[in-house]
Design brief:
Number of domains: 2
Structural class: mainly beta
CATH topology of the largest domain: DNA Polymerase III, Chain A, domain 2
Distance between the termini: 49 Å
Number of helices: 7
Strand content: 35-45%
Oligomer: single chain
Largest sheet: 10 strands, antiparallel
Helix content: 10-25%
Order of helices and strands: HEHEEEEEHEEEEHEHEEEEEHHEEEEEE
CATH class of the largest domain: Alpha Beta
Number of strands: 22
Shape: elongated
Strand order of the largest sheet: 6-2-3-4-19-18-17-10-14-15
Length: about 350
Amino acid sequence: MELFVASDDEPEHDGPYLPSSQVPHSQPPSASQEARFVAATTTTRHLADVFGSITPVSKEAVITIGSDGMRIYAESEHRSSNLSVTIDSTVFRQWQITPPNATLKLQLDISLIASALSSVPNDPEGKHTCIFSYDGLGSPFVIEFEDNLISERIEMHTYVHDIDDGPHVLGIDRSRVHFEITLDSKTFTALLESLHNVGTTEVSLNISNTPETDIRHQLTGGNHNSLFFVSKGPIGLMKVIYPGMPTVLERVDIYDDSDNPTPITSQVSSSYSFKQLGQILKAVRLSSKCKLVKDYRGVLSLQLLCRNQSNATLMTYNLVELSNVEIVYDEEPMAVEPQSDQEYEIERGPAFDTPIFL
C-alpha cells in the first residue's frame, strides 16, 4: 500500500487509507491528475441496487473509469472471493471523460455511494437527475442530485488504491473449464433464499448430464440434465432440487481436462462456504440471466446479466471450493485460507428433499 506522511497543517484521518486529497502537492502531476470525468443519469434506482449488491463482498472497492463505462472491483478478506461489475456508459444519458482516451482509477468506500443513491425516492418519471463527477487524483468523488425544487451535493474521500485488480486476481482459467450451467435467475434466487433461511453453512453443488433413462426422452437423443444442492447447517442435511425444465435449467455442459476440452457425459460435485456464496444473493435478485462456470483448479464463477430497460450491467463473482488451499495464477501462487477444518463430504443417510416449485 502506498503511504504518504501528512504535514502538521493537514487534517488527521481515522481509516487505514490516506485520502488522495492529502497527497503532497510536491508529487509530480500525472496524466490521471489532468483527466476529468462527469456523467448524468436518471436511472438512480438501478445504480443504487447495483452498488448495494457490491457491499456484501467488501465496502472498499476500486473504480476504473474509461470512455466506454466504469468497472468496479471488490474482493473479500484473504482474497478468496471477488466481484467485478461493469456498468456501460449507455446507462447514463451523459458520459464525458477528458481527454477522451484517458483512464481514471480511484479507491473509495463503495457503501457511501450505495447509501447516497438509495436515499433518492423511486422516480419512474425520471424527474431526479444524478450527476457523478471526479477531477482526478487529489479530488473527491462527487454525487449531485437535482430536481425542480432542490439540489444536493455529496463529496466522498478517495484514496490511493492498494487493491490489486490486475491479471493475477482470482478468476476462471478458460483453458481448463470443468462445467458451464445457464440458469433462470428468478428460480436460482428462490433456491439461494431457501438455503439462507435454514441457516446453511456449507453447500454442495451437484450436476449431471447423464443419458436419459426414460424411453420417451431417449427417442429425442437428449441427455437428462439435473442440478441439486445439499445444504449443511444447524438442522442437518437438506437436499434442494433445482427444476430440470429447459426453460429453467437451460444448459449443462461438462468438459474433460485436456489440452482441447471436449464435452463429456458425467457427474460433478463441488462444495462451497455458503457465507461466501450467499454474498451474491442481492446481485442474483437483480439479474435476468445467470451462468455458473467452474474450472479444474476449483474456482467457481457466477456471471450475471442485470438488465435495466435497454441497458445491461454485467457482474462476475469468483470464489473457491472448500477443498482448495492454494490457487495458482499464471505461475504466481496465492494462498487462500481454507473455509473449514475438514473437507465437506455428503453424508449417506436421511436428508430432507426440498424441490423448488415455480
